[in-house]
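Tutorial sheet, problem 5. The three components below are modelled jointly, 1010 residues in total.
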Amino acid sequence: MTMPAQYSRWFAYWPLALLAAALLLPQLLGWFGFDFYVSFATRIMIMALLASSLNLLVGTGGMVSLGHAAFFGAGAYTVAILAREWGGTPAESALLSWPLAMLVGALLAAFIGAICLRTKGVYFIMSTLAFAQMLFYVFLSLKSYGGDDGMSLTKRSTLPGIDLGADVVFYYVVLALFAVALLLLGRLDRARFGKVLRGIKDNELRMESLGFAVFRFKLVAFILAGAMAGLAGALMGNLNNFVSPNMMHWEQSGVVLVMVILGGLGRLWGGLAGAAALLLLEEILPNFLPHWQILLGVILLAVVFFAPRGLAGIFRA
Amino acid sequence: MSGLLFAEQCLNGLQFGLMLFLLAAGLTLVFGIMDLINLAHGSLYMLGAYLAATLTQATDSFLSGVALALCATALIGMLLELTVLRHLYRRDHLSQVLATFALILIANEATRAIWGVQPLSFNVPAALSGSVQLLPGLSYSAFRLAIIAVGLLVAALLYLLIGRTRIGMLVRAGASNRAMATAMGTNIQRLFTALFGVGAALCALAGAMLGPLLAVQVGMGENILILAFVVVVIGGIGSVRGAFVGALLVGVVDTFGRAFVPLTLRQFLPPALADAAGPSLAAISIYILMILVLLWKPQGLFPSRA
Amino acid sequence: MKKQLLWLALLGALTLPAQAADKIKIGFISTLSGPGGVLGAAIRDGFNLALEHTGGKVGGLPVELIVEDDQQKPDVAKQLADKMTKRDKVDFVTGVVFQNIMQAIEQPVFQAQTYLISTNTGPSDLAGERCNPLFFAAAWVSDSYSEATGKNMNDKGYKNVFVIAPNYPGGKDVVNGFKRFYKGGYAGEVYTKLGQLDYAVELSQLRAAKPDAVFFFLPGGMGVNFIKQYHQAGLNKEFPLFGTGWSFDQDTLAAVGEPTLGALNAAHWNLDIDNPQNKKFVADFEKKYNRLPNEFASQGYDALMLIDAAVRDVKGKVEDKEALRKALEAANFKSVRGPFKFNKNHFPIQNYYLRQVVKDDKGRFVNKTVATIFTDHPDAYVSACKM
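Model answer (structure tokens):
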């Protein structure tokens, strides 16, 4: 489905329009009395960040991971544990804990990737899942960090001069981070790195014979995705003021994967499209139907059969 | 720790493993031959349990209930294949993941709509509700012995079917090289539908046998689905023999992990730590097993692909 | 209904949020789906029955009840709590089933200075160091049932008990409560995986350990599995089985049936407690819902009656938080469980009974109260509360 020529020129500027809308959203919601939904919009962006990081792995690199939630949860727990153990010190500062969350995500990804990337296909899927489950069970049994009950954060991370506790402020900070992440992902995609990844997804053997260090490229992508997921985890922990082992469970990984597929594999806006679509459907449908999950299932099936390139792929050739 | 306890735990491992085999067998064939990742496999298991529970109550006979549930689930499975899944074969794995995930949502909610939120009452038939004295000092539940018997019987039947019949040969050919099998003239479409029906029936059998032991409730499929996938991966995709070996391995490792790891840890760790680490180690023992197998044989124990 | 209108408005015309009328808004966040959904449904049914009995009002004022499903997910619950306190501006939040859900919604509810009435979970830290004037546990504290069972088993003279519970902080809490009153020895202490389905391994260990009695805490579906398999393995003929009331609630008895017969358990309420309000509750519940109520339903029922009494005491002026707190503390209502009052930490001081599963004259499996274990029993954490 392609746009008629006279519209496509204007259509190319739509990301700017989206940004403008995003900047104005809190004010708009405030006028209608929907202040509460600012948090909802923030949630969409955080999940979009997580989904976009998985999209780098799955859509661009062809590495289907069902253990991505491990990095998400690890990032969240990093922030929570820092706040719990060293509360009232610089450890609570976002400038320290958030980069640390990314580092934890990256290191975990390095470790898991080094082992799992030796396998392929469904074996890779299952090994990533295995590691995420192991992490889940470990955190589940840790009584000192809440175990099954999870841990509450008494307040959000601190930033100099900015009160992240205010929903609107937090929204803008997340928006800024998400925009930067998306710009970065776009850059990576157009650069050599992205092209090599796509080549690996297409035909790994060919890339090897062309002399590319395939394993290293895949591992770097895995680590990058892990770091981004760690940041998403830190942000989600802040949004909810709460972390729990469920953030690492394979069902969480599954939901993110569904968002990516729904949104459009390998497409820059796939993560946002999928996260927004799924979360909005889950928010709106229950108000109209008692058994809304059936309708949600039908909608997802429709996307699979009639929009095979995902939602973000609808308007492209 | 006595020899009798060890023997009893072996039986437990065998029983658990054989039930996993029923689930994994269908899954591995569908994946190996149709190249289809079917997340809704767990939903067929759940459906089998629900139907068996309902039909057993309706007919007042466990045997009839299970038999009818098997047929019904097989039919539903084949219907599913004809309408939705058939169109997914040529699609990539991820589209299959999304589509079958959608099917899980629909199946869970439909089950909730039809049967309600409360778990179903499904008890062991009176004839099998006692225990059997296997050795002096070792009594084992009659129903669990029945599960072992059924599991072994199905394994034997599948072995004969796949190894000794023409249909089995077609299945093995399809698993090994689908394009070639099609070229050789087998009616692939009908084979696939039949295969899916068999897989669904196996799921239903597992659901019907495990139903009286576990709670029959919505979402019961997802928990066991992960284990089934682990078994398939360990055994090698497309191999029923692999599924059998993998399932027994998983059953035994999980059982022994739960039985003996906490005890062993208590020998040289303070009780509080052993209690915390032990059950967690037991829970993740299956995943460690899978990783180790994959490191040794990256395609599983008995890969069927040439 | 209101939410549908809000969403339609977003797609169309401008609208302003509805002005708060002279009514009481109650936010009901409960687990209504998934394996835990049975419990939430029971609490909701009890709550709705009470609302019927009060004519749809509390303290004479009409009630707007907003019921939401937390799907047993803490992050969903937190969003719901945010919604109810910030958007709907409810006067009370209630309905919660699970401890981890409660933990997730504490913050938004307390920050909004809204009263949180627990219809089920009573986390021990909220009874002790972290006690909060905004929190009222209308049911019990997390380890009260196990305390009671432990005391009963101790009094019966058991010396070699096999204990089994899931490996998570809630499970260990319950076992600690058990240990506070059971002073005998142990044949074994096993912690299973949360959500585990099959107990063959643990039952084999149990049989080999030859205890003189078994105590288990396995909430929800886990308990259902365990009871069935215990019976299956013939162990119910060998070792007496003790549990907490949660594993032998009426819905579980109806679902599991025969395997539960003879089991002993402790709880704060039972069908056969003899007082007029309980008799009315049980009879009307059966008439309305076609099944017997369980303790979860009774907790929902009592929670609404508590709110009703408190709102009546402040004559509808719920904005006066101080007066409302005093009214809640006074708990001027007749609980279906019998004697009931709040301790200074807003946790109940009540009786706990020993129940045994029997078959009633209609052939149904029910609990029969066989003894009173504790009378006017407070929780163990009140001394740590500085309220």
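Marking note: Residues 295-313 of chain C form the longest helix (19 residues). Full credit if you identified this.
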